[in-house]
Amino acid sequence: MADNSNTRNFRKLLSEIIDTEKTYVKNLEVLSSRYLDPLSTVTFLTTLEITQLSESLREILKVQRSFLKRLERVIEEHSKVFSSEREDLVRNTVLAVGDVFLFSADQFKIYSSFCALYSRVQDILNSGENEPLRHFLESKNETKEHCNSLESFIIQPIQRILKYPLFLRQMAGLTLEKSEEHRHICKACDVMQCVANHINEMQKLSAEFGESFRSLSAQDLGVRDLWAERPDRQHSADNIPVIKAGYCVKEGGKMKSWKRRYFVLNEYGLFYFTSEERRKTTFRNARESIFYTSAGSMEHYKSGYCTKQGGKWKNWLSRYFVVNQDGIMYFTSEQSIEALGVIPKNSVNGVQEISPSQFDRDNVFEIHTCCRTYYLQCENHDDLCEWVSAIRRLLPHPKIQLNVGELCTYSAVHWCNIRDIVGKKAHACEIATSVFVFRSALAIISRYKQNTKEDRDGATGSTGSSGPQVADLFRSIIPADDILVTEETDDMQDRYTWSVTQSYLDDLPPRTYKFCTSSKEIRSRFVTAIQDINQRRT
């Protein structure tokens, strides 16, 4: 330190860091216990994002408690710095503080998950139409002051992690420019700025690919599902490699008449069409669910009568509902043997209670699916809670969670054998493919390049905007213990190839993806990251 004023300012800064850190950890505990943990169990919210945010906060709290203990240990071991003017004491304290930040820098990267979820959760919590949520938040803020509101607490992790480089920059300004302590604290400042930059990068990545990551996390890892891997509904039926195809005569489901149909068997299942020509423009999945047992005799999580709003006429009619491991079915009555409607398990995206003012009816909840929203009314609130709990058992509990906080590496790649997997009409030059290596899995996401997408959409009025509005053409997830990675030897200039093979799945043969990157360094990064996650799993 050059003079006494710098020493005094250093003491003030050190006190500010430790005092604000104690307050911050206390506020994290309040945010978790008062708001996020209770919100993870309520009936009036679809809880997946809230639960993820709560889990992320628990990890942050664990890191911050450890960080605070290290800072307190430094203050305890160098307590004389607050009463002595000796330069060696100040220098050693600065070095010790820098060490604490350098040690914790990698751990602070877990903030990426929280920050990526923040904007999505904000949209959910700021919904003015959710009256039960508004009453809940008001009841938790007894003082009615903004500083005690959820909005005030939930933004603090983002503010705090971006504050650390500023603290260190101030500390560096109080040291002699060519001194050892100045270089050390500048190094800590640079590392923490890299952490902040990493978090900003992960937020942008989550905004662009977050919806794709959530869809991949919800996939059943034991099968290859057509609409899960190929969400682009304009994807023509003849653009998938075929195992066998041809005409058969099929019995009708309702009229029992026999008609000639064109069948296609591929790795996703058995499909049928009116004719071979019709196959090029439409899909018809032959694996439809028809039930020939009475509704009351089915094994179920819950069953009973609810009043349901019609899909077309919006009238409210009593229906008998059954929730079981396959999904939700509803019937005219308990004695009915054929379902009026079926909601498959994999199409249920969420369920939550809604405000009575929306339909001027009490005890109404909504079921979100990929196609529509169903509205059901129960006799009382206890019954509503039972239905919501039963339906939540259908929601995906992924074995693998694609979380940007666990992202090891990612990059855009050239997919060399895309036509072997996506189909003969897929051209790699028109498609942008990105590969993401997480600690638990590898994800592949392909989208049409923006200029190509605009040409294809043409008259449909596509906006051509970038980012989250670009739909996935193909996406797949491969668990870490199912991956075999190989470096290829047929390298060319600016084309360094490598392949990923997924082991046997659902009695289907292995699937090999062949990629190439523009540099050896990128390929090496991918190969090393995949080998590392394989070793962790074993």
UniProtKB/TrEMBL annotation:
<dbReference type="Pfam" id="PF00621">
    <property type="entry name" value="RhoGEF"/>
</dbReference>
<dbReference type="InterPro" id="IPR035899">
    <property type="entry name" value="DBL_dom_sf"/>
</dbReference>
<dbReference type="InterPro" id="IPR001849">
    <property type="entry name" value="PH_domain"/>
</dbReference>
<dbReference type="Pfam" id="PF00169">
    <property type="entry name" value="PH"/>
</dbReference>
<protein>
    <submittedName>
        <fullName>Protein still life, isoform SIF type 1</fullName>
    </submittedName>
</protein>
<dbReference type="GO" id="GO:0007264">
    <property type="term" value="P:small GTPase-mediated signal transduction"/>
</dbReference>
<dbReference type="InterPro" id="IPR001331">
    <property type="entry name" value="GDS_CDC24_CS"/>
</dbReference>
<dbReference type="GO" id="GO:0005085">
    <property type="term" value="F:guanyl-nucleotide exchange factor activity"/>
</dbReference>
<dbReference type="InterPro" id="IPR055230">
    <property type="entry name" value="PH_Tiam1/2"/>
</dbReference>
<dbReference type="InterPro" id="IPR043537">
    <property type="entry name" value="Tiam1/Tiam2/Sif"/>
</dbReference>
<dbReference type="InterPro" id="IPR011993">
    <property type="entry name" value="PH-like_dom_sf"/>
</dbReference>
<dbReference type="InterPro" id="IPR000219">
    <property type="entry name" value="DH_dom"/>
</dbReference>
<dbReference type="Pfam" id="PF23014">
    <property type="entry name" value="PH_Tiam1"/>
</dbReference>
